Amino acid sequence: MSNRIVEQPPRANPPTPDPVSGNATTPRTPRLTALTGDPAAYNYAFLDEVSKREIRRALLKAVAIPGYQVPFGSREMPIARGWGSGGLQVTLATIGPGDRLKVIDQGTDAGVNAVNIRRLVERTAPGVTTTYATEEATIIQSRHRFPEEPLRADQIMVLQVPLPEPLRMVEPRESVTRQLHAEADYARMWVHLYEDVITNGEISRAAGYPVLVNGRYIMSPSPIPRWDVAKLHQSASLTLLGAGREKRIYAVPPHTDVVPLDFEDYPFRVEDFGEKRCARCGADDTYLDELIVEGGGRTYACSDTAHCDARIATTDAARIPHAD
After folding, report:
1. pLDDT over 60 at 223, yes or no
2. In 70-109, which residue ranges form alpha helices assigned H by DSSP?
3. Which residues contact 188 (CB under 8 A, 6 or more apart)?
4. What is the pTM of this model?
5. What's the first-to-final CA gap in the chain, in angstroms?
6. Half-sphere exposure (CA, 13 Å, Cβ side) for 165?
7. For residue 211, what are the β-bridge partners?
């Protein structure tokens, strides 16, 4: 007779008696095991319905008062605060079957943060598709960039915001900044910008440039570059901004005035790339990222990778000879 090791089936945990009633109870599944289980166990779009309703109420108030920061109860998310939890909650509260979601991280669709957010939505929101093409998306969630293509009225732009308070640089106390916004007392901000001009010869703020929304509230447009600030002004699309760590939501409705703060003799200006072009598609009319190549040299490429890929595809298609 040969020696064989017979594998025994894993033993099921026996029911444990309830300490009060004495009846047998089914053992609980460990929490971490449950989190990796069947996606059908999640609520639609991960958040529970009560949380979605609260976020939607905050969004309605934010749209009604452009640029005003609305407090909300930020939930725990499967991503860390500061990595887009506020923008993700806004997206999950507004998305529904039939929507097409595009997620970009500083211009690229292939960033780790963008990939993981897309994966979460795909697992927990049946009926929602994801796309890389801006023109196909109904909801676009972004970290620090606007797409190069102009957005339409049927699209929603969701921006992730790490620090929503534009007055934080001049006043650290939250209670005081609330009062300054309520009274539209922005003298400290203007003094700060004036001191910046005296020190640096210009307003040196590169990302998150402060803007005046609808002639009333000063707002931080998230850390988007100056290049993208003009895309907020009189935009056809709705822009929603969420800060999960700071528990704030605010919005810029369609066709709203968004004016960057500046002086008559020191006007607002965007980044100037001179005669530099994208090394991939040759574009000279897009926001460019500087890249360090092998040997220590520098090259430039479009920050919006999907827009760059589309231009390359269009150029390649034009080069293909067509049969008569």
Report:
1. yes
2. 85-94
3. 167, 170, 171, 180
4. 0.85
5. 80
6. 19
7. 219, 260
Q: Tokens for 279?
A: 């090394």
CATH 3.40.50.11310-classified regions of the chain: 49-260
pLDDT digits (tens, 9 = 90+) for 247-295: 999 999 999 999 999 999 999 999 999 999 999 999 999 999 999 988 8
pLDDT exceeds cutoff 70 at 61: yes
Tell me if 58 sits within 8 A of 246, measured CB to CB.
no
CB atoms within 10 A of CB 145: 21
- CB neighbours (10 Å) of residue 66? 20
Which one of 2.160.10.10, 3.40.30.10, 3.40.525.10, 3.40.50.11310 gives the CATH number of domain 49-260? Answer: 3.40.50.11310
Q: CB–CB of 100/138 below 8 Å?
A: yes
Q: Active-site positions? A: 67, 278, 281, 302, 308
Residue 221 neighbours by CB under 8 Å, 6+ apart: 159, 208, 209, 211, 228, 229, 232, 241, 258
Tokens 């309605």 label which residue? Answer: 60
- 169: nearest Cα among 208, 214, 120: 208
Number of alpha helices (DSSP H) and beta strands (DSSP E) in the chain: 8, 14
Let me know how long the chain is.
Answer: 324
- DSSP class of residue 27? P
Contact predicate 300/276, CB 8 Å: yes
Q: Assess contact for 79 and 88: CB atoms under 8 A.
A: yes
Asked if 290 contacts 300 with a C-beta cutoff of 8 angstroms, the reply is yes
Burial level of 108, CB count in 10 A (0-12/13-18/19+)?
A: buried
C-alpha–C-alpha distance, residues 241 and 252, integer Å? 8
For residues 149-170, b (16+ Cβ closer than 10 Å) or e, as one string? eebeeebbbbbbbbbbbbbebb
Closest among 62, 85, 60 to 74, alpha carbons compared? 85
Residue 104 C-beta-side C-alpha neighbours within 13 Å:
26
The Cα–Cα gap between 16 and 53 comes to 38
- Between CA 16 and CA 21, with CA 17 as vertex, the angle to 5 degrees is 150
